[in-house]
What does this fold into?
Amino acid sequence: MLTQVRIVGNRGITAGMSERPFRVLGLQQIAIGSESKSALRHLWVDTLGLTQVGTYRAESENVDEDILTLGHGPHAVEIDLMEPIDPDARPRVQSPPLNHIGLWVDDLPAAVAWLGEKGVRFTPGGIRKGASGFDVCFIHPKSNDAFPLSGEGVLIELVQAPADVIAAQEPSA
It folds into this structure.
């Protein structure tokens, strides 16, 4: 079966779906897990030279993380180095080692509503504040009978983009 693909303004590519009410603007973060952050820190901070800009610890998410930054301004990408608070508890932030990716979106509530209507499965918790203070919501890595669309093995974090990131993605006049 051939699917017709067309370009619709600056909303990107659509394939037989109604125009989506949001845009994915770029990569917000890459989250990397390990049993211990020390080896990750040695590579990413000491060897590669990234700057640590914060930390985050949440018992409910079983995570202790160092937040690094790569680049500057609205195009900076966050690198999260994560270790579990309890290695035997869930979620297992150390497995897989490439834990999840984060994508900037220009309208998170519209994205979650529209994707949910399309059958996308989200993790429990809904929209909430993430480690960096932005509203986030996660697309589940696995589908189920009720929600046939998923991250196809990848946990995907949708992150509400702040105004400067949105403005940086607008076409030049």
User: Anything to note?
Assistant: The mean pLDDT is 90. The beta strands are 6-7, 13-14, 24-33, 51-58, 63-70, 77-83, 98-105, 128-129, 135-139, 155-160.
